[in-house]
Amino acid sequence: GERRRQSRGMSRPCDERGFREIYATHLSVNEGEGASYPTIRVYQAYNKQIAHAAVEANSFAAPRDDGIWSESRMTWIKPSAAWMAYRCGWTLFKDKNQGCVLALDVDRSRFEALLMQAVVTDDAPADQKGTFKEKPVVVQWDPEREMDPMLAAGEASGKKTGTEPYLRKLESVRSLQIGLRGRASALLLDPTFVRRITDVTAQFQAAHAALIAGDAAAANAALCPDERRMDVPKQLREVLHMDIDTREEATHDAPEVVVSSVKLVAAAAAVSSAGNEREELARGAMAEGSAMAEGGAMAEVRSLRPSSLHAGTSAAASSAGWASRRSCATSHSSATRKG
Q1: CA distance 83 to 85
Q2: What gap in Å lies between CA 174 and CA 196, rounded to an integer?
Q3: What pTM does this model have?
Q4: For the region Disordered, what residue ranges are annotated (predicted)?
């Protein structure tokens, strides 16, 4: 029917991505005399006046000199076009200050150097987050967005009136958001950092129109045809906490379930073969296992894993292991905020 026709060309490329990876458009900017600079594309949304002035001069110096842009304000850049579409409501559904999207092709090596200064706010204890207010570069890993022509307004966000239709929120895939202030924000004025500024508003609106027509392939071709995984050096991966997968927190219950099940089975065996004294011990173990299964003593067994259990409990471990694998699959498929 109609819903099936709307899904033509639809794919789920985000499903194949790691939890924290940087996907971006990679280009080379030529600047005369044969000079070519590898770049990474990031996005920002502005009003028409700022966007026009910046594109015309290929620099934010022009809107700064006009008094409509300031490097003293904190600003955010993002490499994901889909996340930019979410943030600005396709340039159509939010305020006029997000009515245009600019693509900034930034020097690849200097982009990596910038990120080496970053502080990841997601993983910090709550009592430390206030200390980041003066940091020049902060990053956060927000849920990625994925285009889906089958999601009408409001369905993607859960709101009655959606401002970002056709964008699915993915908890199992994260997208990098980069906040700049002070000297880091001033880099946007540096022509050796921002190599090229392009108004890509038309591409965002074309992608939205394609999604209305149910053509995901055309939407992808308009919005982000060349986005691919950025090869990030090991040291930078560590700075950005790219190999910390917080999805694991959702599956930590699995080993605890195994331990609880094994204790219950062992206790039952003891009841059937022991005298009164051992029977009382077994009942105690059963009570302990039940309490753990209900979440009452999870801290006690967080460090335990099925591999450390006695071989005689393999049947229970196998049964609970099935539940563990099922939990992992569920959390993987089903496992905020700045401009």
Answers
A1: 5
A2: 26
A3: 0.70
A4: 311-339
Dihedral sign of CA atoms 155, 159, 161, 165 in order: negative
Q: Which amino acid is at 74?
A: M
For helices 201-212 and 216-223, the axis angle rounded to 10 degrees is 170
**Residue from 10, 20, 196, 201 nearest 94 by CA:** 201
Residue by residue, DSSP assigns 118-161 as: -EESTTS-GGGGGGGGG-SEEEEEEEEEEE-TT--TTTTTT-SS
Each residue's pLDDT tens digit, 231-266: 999 999 999 999 987 665 444 443 433 333 334 334
Give me the sign of the Cα torsion angle 328, 332, 336, 339.
positive
- Report yes or no: 76 and 184 within 8 Å, Cβ to Cβ: no
From residue 87, give the alpha-carbon distance in Å to each of 52, 90, 99, 203, 217.
20, 8, 11, 15, 22
Tens of pLDDT, residue by residue over 119-169, are 999 988 877 777 888 899 999 999 999 999 998 755 555 454 467 899 999
Q: What is the pLDDT of residue 59?
A: 98
In three-state secondary structure terms, 102 is strand
Q: For Cα atoms 307, 308, 312, give the angle at the middle one, nearest 5 degrees.
A: 85
Q: Which residues contact 45 (CB under 8 A, 6 or more apart)?
A: 84, 87, 88, 91, 97, 98, 99, 100, 101, 102, 339
**Amino acid at residue number 171:** E
